[in-house]
Amino acid sequence: MSRLSSDDDSRGGGGVPPTHRHYHPYQDLKVPITNLYTLPTSPEYLFQEEELHQHRSWGENLQFYTGSSYLFGALSGGIKGTVDGVRSAEPGDSFKLRVNRVLNEGGTMGRRWGNSFGVLGLLFAGVESGMVYWRGTDDMINSMVAGLGTGALYKAAAGPRTAAIAGAIGGIAAGMAVAGKQAAKRYVPI
Fold this sequence. Notes:
The chain is mostly helical. The protein is 67% helix and 0% strand. The chain has helices at 7-11, 33-36, 48-52, 58-87, 95-135, 140-154, 160-187.
């Protein structure tokens, strides 16, 4: 074994002076090595203005709520339509006819539900952004009022009683969603 590869020599053990040292790329930083790999848990921003901006803009809200609502409606409607298509199959149908029925039902129901949920997301985003602008704060009350307004606007053509019931259901649903989000933030470590 050569003198340069001996472990005892690299640490200076055995009374022999060390002829080489281990490479340590962070030795000149004067920082404990464990601090280099601890990542912050708070968000980091590129610009100082981003740190002051704590909520999404109205355009980001519009895209997020409309898109996610449409996606949820299309998926759930497609699943329900597929199940309905499988159930409506008749005993004498060929395989191609059954597949066609399943695809037609799934596509029709997915498109219908996706459009309905997309409109709900669009209304919710508009009312919530209006409330944030009008009140000047972004809190739970805005979301609950947005849910109430969304339900009432969506069912406004069916009459005032139906609109009031739909508004109450929308307000309760939005309040439960916000409370669930707050509970998840508090009790679920991410």
